[in-house]
Amino acid sequence: MSPTLPPPPAPPSGEPGEPTEVELYALVAARLKEAHARVRALDVSAATRASLTRSLLLVTEAAKRDLPEAARRLAIFVDRLDGGDHPPSKAH
Predict the structure, then answer these.
(1) 18 lies in a domain?
(2) Could you read off the pLDDT of 47-83 as tens digits, one per residue?
(3) Which of 25, 45, 60, 83 minimizes the number of CB atoms within 10 Å of its CB?
């Protein structure tokens, strides 16, 4: 019978309580998915919905280069969405 090995040590992370990069990526991905669903569910004009979707796509693109910055931008977006702050729709 072979001896039981202890689990490998967890990789070092930043400050205590800070998410690791993988955890932050998963958190941003889940929040982006939720934000997209919320935007789709809004009763707003197509132009407003398109503007909000473009904003989320910019956050997605930012996540490829600077994950903490993308998380910050997404938090601001969601706060504004919660407050009903939508871009005005443009009449054509």
Answers:
(1) no
(2) 999 999 999 999 999 999 999 999 999 999 999 999 9
(3) 83
